[in-house]
Specification:
The chain is an alpha+beta fold. It is built from 14 helices and 45 strands.
Length: 819
């Protein structure tokens, strides 16, 4: 029975049945608390949806029977829509952190190698060797192969990959790649293979040898033609823009008119109470009570982003991801009122709503705000930027025109089948806002809570979304990807970032991808999946995800102190992450540290040894979170994290302001207004831009743009020294290597890299060797140029290179000549 393995949230080896493997039925059983009205099971198998899998009362408990493929599945029980509880019957050995100070429950389906008899000397337990040639082998079109398999832990003395490349057999030893669940995972890599090629796996223990093949015939190799991602995304350096808080370029469209809005000056003190602008005095009114902080508006808009395109270009950014920009009441815009139009506070105030529009796209007009965005796209593209926007297709806001029609007309609404209405209530209450969500009034399912602010679209097992919202999303997808509708997508967006896509069943995403790629085959699709995302990244749904799985182990290594990951474990985990997906996917993953949903990167170093995105909200989960300014040592760690981000395989993504040194706990403070040098002085703690950190970001991004291997090269582990805290890896492209060396300790260290070809090597991180330059063209990005007096005395002799590293420092060595 073939299986596919991959690395889980905390490095756990997870197994998914593929190929001929069949799903098995598993019954979840939960004795819910007495106040339970509804119980659902949410987990890695349903995108952690709190509403997709209901449990039914039976024999004094709630039960749900689900077909699950073999492997480890993480889950929790959701009571009354908002209480997430663990299963006392969970396999505690397999539980993983939930990122919020708790754990996810776990169940293992299928073979449990922990229960196998101990290995016998001189014997290979062939029935516990697991390899699926269709999924455990990756051959990229330049002849780079990665082969994986698993065997019972302690069963093998060695394993060899035997390659047939038409020139005779090549033998490449497998290396152990981690132990879990009673198995050892093995991996072998080779380059320079033709396509097609063939292979077998030789397993040895003492005098016993077993050859894993197709009944005497070698396994064939073929390229990953079924997994294609946009080529340009390999060269992307992403920048996340939270529009309301990035830059106010047009005060005429500022919010502040509504009762729930308070307009504050851009440079005002975040932590103060501004009664002079309408905030209510008293600490109890900051988060709760009047909720001052949630009402704040600052007037960021599209003109402000356009005004700072040159700033982003000079930083080295060439791809922009916008948080939602469609018409919505909130400052974050995840509560869309109308996907058809850009929010008027981002464009031209007062141009929405639009009369006479229906669900028929032929009736849709372009508002003045819409045209502001289209003009922005043209300006950004002329300067070499790709632009994607947030697609929030799971839910809308209560002000959305379709939901408003449901509230007004009840079951007679033409949109009645768009939402999950749990109780239509008394018909006399339809159209009476004071009854909505109250006894006798309409009740609905929402993403945030029952009768919440974010009504969820109805799901459909075969279509993913119910027909009405499905077609509407398809129509607005066409609108923003090809505004002229002329078949030329060059005037539209370059792709989408998808919000909570795990809440929508896979059939929708498969069909939606076909639509997106039919409009623009080069469009980019990235999903917000926090855990491992293999089910969405098989070439039939997304191109990439926001790669929180990069952030978690990276910060365990660089930010933690008491619980810091060792260099050996870190390098192993990162290698596993690279090969967890088809390599065309890994090259375009959005490698981020922070986002609008986490504390800021700078503050992660001030608050080490916490779960990623856990214990970091001052108002609830993190009352002891330290919100102070980072010190010099913490800034050094920040710089080291940037060096890793800009040299690792995948596309780095910066959350606005991290490059300027902004710090803060989680939402809402991670959404403070951007710090701009030309707007100084600022009130409060964050008074100015950290120019040294900003220059470091620019240099590291320039380094990435300069060296193609850092964008498109293979990942090759080189050194993990647990005694000194040094890690080194190489990025290899067309035989050219760039060596990345990181010292994550507070002591100076000397590292020796073995296997480095003899010759002269230059450390591009050292400003004495290379300077940042930028051309005059509007689409030029910073690059590095060797200085006239570049120190070229670093010479590799005898296949080794010695490197002296300061505490918390990085070096990146390339051959003496730059391309």
């Amino acid at each position: 029975m073939p299986y596919r393995w991959f690395v889980g949230l905390a490095g756990t080896l997870l197994i998914l049945a593929l190929g001929s493997a069949e799903a098995a039925s598993h019954t979840f059983r939960f004795e819910a608390p007495p106040d339970a009205q509804t119980v659902h099971v949410a987990g890695s198998f349903n995108g952690w949806s709190s509403s997709a899998t209901p449990m039914q009362p039976r024999d004094g408990a709630y039960v749900a029977t689900i077909d699950l493929p073999d492997g480890v599945h993480l889950y929790k029980f959701v009571v009354n829509g908002d209480r997430w509880l663990n299963d006392p019957a969970s396999d505690h050995e397999l539980e993983e952190s939930d990122g919020h100070g708790g754990v996810n429950s776990a169940v293992l389906i299928g073979l449990d190698a922990r229960q196998l008899p101990a290995p016998r000397p001189g014997h290979v337990r062939a029935d516990a060797v697991i390899h699926d040639p269709d999924t455990d082998t990756t051959l990229i079109d330049d002849g780079w192969i990665v082969v994986r398999f698993r065997a019972q832990r302690g069963d093998l003395e060695r394993a060899v990959l035997v390659l047939d490349d038409g020139q005779g057999p090549r033998r490449v030893p497998f290396e152990p790649a981690g132990d879990a669940l009673g198995f050892t995972a093995y991996r072998a890599e080779a380059a320079g293979l033709p396509d097609p090629a063939a292979y077998a796996i030789e397993l040895v223990d003492g005098d016993a040898t077993v050859v894993l093949d197709r009944g005497g015939l070698p396994f064939g190799l073929s390229t990953d033609l079924d997994v294609e991602t946009p080529d340009w995304a390999r060269d992307a350096v992403w920048y996340q823009v939270f529009a309301e808080r990035f830059r106010n370029g047009d005060p005429s469209n500022d919010p502040g008119d509504a009762e729930f809005e308070t307009l504050l000056p851009w440079t005002s003190d975040w932590w103060a109470t501004h009664t002079e602008h309408g905030e209510v005095a008293g600490e109890e009114n900051f988060y709760t009570g009047h909720g001052n902080v949630w009402r704040r508006r600052y007037g960021g808009d599209l003109r402000g982003v356009a005004d700072k395109l040159d700033y982003l270009r000079d930083l080295g950014v060439n791809a922009i991801y916008f948080n939602p920009i469609f018409e919505a009441e909130s400052m974050h815009k995840y509560d869309a009122s109308d996907f058809r139009h850009i929010d008027d506070n981002f464009g031209v105030k007062g141009d929405w709503p639009v009369a006479g529009e229906t669900d028929d796209p032929a009736t849709w007009t372009w508002t003045a705000s819409d045209r502001v965005f289209l003009d922005f796209l043209a300006e950004a593209k002329a300067k070499g930027f790709k632009v994607i926007i947030d697609g929030v297709f799971n839910h809308v806001g209560q002000r959305h025109y379709a939901f408003q029609d449901v509230l007004e007309n009840g079951p007679d609404s033409v949109y009645a089948d768009w939402f999950v209405i749990t109780d239509w209530g008394d018909p006399a209450n339809h159209g009476r806002p004071e009854t909505y969500g109250q006894p006798g009034g309409i009740q609905w399912d929402a993403w945030d809570e029952h009768n919440g602010a974010l009504p969820a679209f109805k799901k459909d097992d075969s279509l993913g979304l119910a027909p009405g919202p499905r077609q509407h999303i398809f129509d607005i997808t066409r609108r923003w990807m090809d505004p002229d509708g002329d078949g030329d997508p060059s005037d539209g967006i370059d792709g989408w970032r998808l919000d909570v896509p795990g809440d929508i069943p896979h059939p929708f995403w498969r069909d939606w991808r076909v639509l997106v790629k039919s409009i623009n085959s080069d469009a980019y699709i990235s999903g917000e999946i926090w855990g491992m995302a293999e089910p969405w990244l098989r070439g039939d749904q997304f191109d990439a995800v926001m790669n929180y799985q990069f952030a978690m182990p990276a910060l365990d290594f660089l930010a933690d102190e008491r619980d810091a990951t060792t260099p050996t474990d870190f390098l192993s985990t990162m290698r596993d992450l690279v090969y967890a997906y088809p390599l065309p996917v890994s090259f375009v993953q959005q490698n981020l540290y922070a986002s609008h949903d986490t504390d800021r990167l700078a503050s992660m170093f001030v608050n080490p040894d916490r779960p990623y995105d856990g214990e970091n909200r001052l108002q609830d989960t993190g009352p002891h979170y330290d919100a102070r300014r980072p010190n010099d040592a913490e800034r050094a760690r920040h710089r080291l994290a940037v060096a890793l981000q800009m040299t690792f395989l995948g596309a780095p993504m910066i959350y606005y302001g991290d490059e300027a040194g902004m710090w803060s706990p989680d939402d809402p403070s991670d959404r403070m207004p951007m710090i701009w040098a030309d707007l100084a002085p600022y009130e409060g703690q964050q008074r100015d831009v950290d120019t040294d950190l900003l220059a470091w970001y620019r240099r590291m991004i320039a380094l990435r743009h300069t060296e193609p291997a850092l964008r498109r090269g293979a990942f090759v582990p080189v050194l993990a020294d647990d005694a000194t805290g040094v890690v080194a890896f190489a990025r290899e492209l067309d035989g050219r290597r760039a060596y990345v060396v990181l010292n994550r300790s507070d002591r100076a260290s000397r590292a020796t890299l073995d296997g480095v070809p003899a010759g002269r090597w230059v450390d591009l991180v050292d400003p004495r060797n290379a300077e940042v330059v930028i051309g005059d063209g509007p689409s030029d990005r910073p690059r590095l140029a060797l200085t006239p007096d570049a120190r070229r005395q670093t010479v590799a002799e005898g296949d080794s290179l010695s490197v002296d590293l300061d505490p918390w420092s990085a070096a990146v060595f390339v051959p003496e000549s730059l391309d």
